[in-house]
Design brief:
Number of strands: 11
Structural class: alpha/beta
Radius of gyration: 20 Å
Distance between the termini: 27 Å
Number of domains: 2
Strand content: 5-15%
CATH class of the largest domain: Alpha Beta
CATH superfamily of the largest domain: Luciferase-like domain
Length: 272
């Protein structure tokens, strides 16, 4: 999908939101992303996280409880491959001999964003990433982890997305949009809750009804002016470089395109 977007665009940045690192082989991932970077003319950002659904790990034959260490290894390998190294790497998860890739990315410093919402995730983003992908509420702890590294070249960066504001639809008629989108958000929320039933450490979603979710929907569907104020509020908490706007599950793309156009026309100019 990123390759298709790269072929049809010229200036916008393209990235993952979010790729689950434990399900990739680092050599294949590094080379695929290098090709994407070339196709996009240096406009690609790679965002990675661990995942939180044990059954997904089972399908890949991975040990769910070891996904953090596996991801740490992958992040180290991918970075070295992009730098043009040829090297051996031996760990519990990867046994590489003479690993290298071709072609190399054209970006000198292809960005890796590391996602999550926990102290270990903040430390991982600080140590292995170029920025943090997650809620602004975690930025201070992530920034402290960056500072602890003592590397003056590293600066804390954030792309903002969280469980409380995954959806952000800009509308000229918010009440009608809420009616149109509510069933889709209820479905997505309850699906997340089902996935998290057996993973209490990350269970931030609870099953809801349409009536229960309706009041919260007014924080996800807003007018252009309200959207500008909302994003400025986020920027007061952290120097966000991007604000996540997930499409609600099953919401018709032709309707989503209308909201995206309003955002482009009436919200983005406020941040130019």
């Amino acid at each position: 999908m990123a390759a298709a977007a790269a072929a049809r665009t010229r200036t916008m940045r393209i990235g993952t939101c979010i790729a689950l690192a434990p399900f990739y082989h680092p050599v294949r991932l590094a080379e695929d992303v290098a090709v994407l970077d070339i196709l996009s003319g240096g406009r690609f950002d790679l965002a990675l996280a661990l995942g939180y659904v044990p059954s997904e790990a089972d399908r890949y034959g991975n040990n769910f409880k070891k996904r953090a260490r596996r991801t740490d290894d992958l992040l180290q390998i991918v970075r070295r491959l992009w730098q043009g190294e040829s090297f051996d790497f031996e760990s519990e998860f990867f046994q590489l001999k003479g690993a290298r890739i071709s072609p190399l990315p054209i970006s000198k410093d292809l960005p890796i964003w590391v996602g999550g919402n926990s102290a270990p995730a903040y430390r991982r983003a600080a140590k292995y990433g170029d920025g943090f992908f997650g809620p602004v509420e975690g930025f201070a702890e992530y920034a402290a982890a960056v500072e602890e590294l003592g590397d003056p070249a590293k600066k804390p960066r954030i792309c903002s997305i969280g469980s409380n504001d995954m959806w952000h639809l800009v509308s000229e008629d918010p009440e009608q949009t809420i009616e149109d989108v509510l069933d889709h958000i209820v479905y997505q929320t309850n699906t997340y809750a089902e996935w998290m039933d057996n993973n209490e450490a990350t269970s931030v979603f609870k099953r809801v009804t349409r009536d229960e979710l309706r009041p919260a929907a007014r924080t996800w569907v807003m007018t252009p002016d309200a959207s500008i104020d909302y994003i400025k509020g986020k920027m007061a908490l952290a120097p966000i470089e991007a604000h996540g706007m997930m499409a609600p599950s099953g919401y018709p793309l032709e309707k989503l395109a209308v909201h995206a156009q309003i955002f482009a026309d009436k919200v983005m100019p406020a941040f130019a």
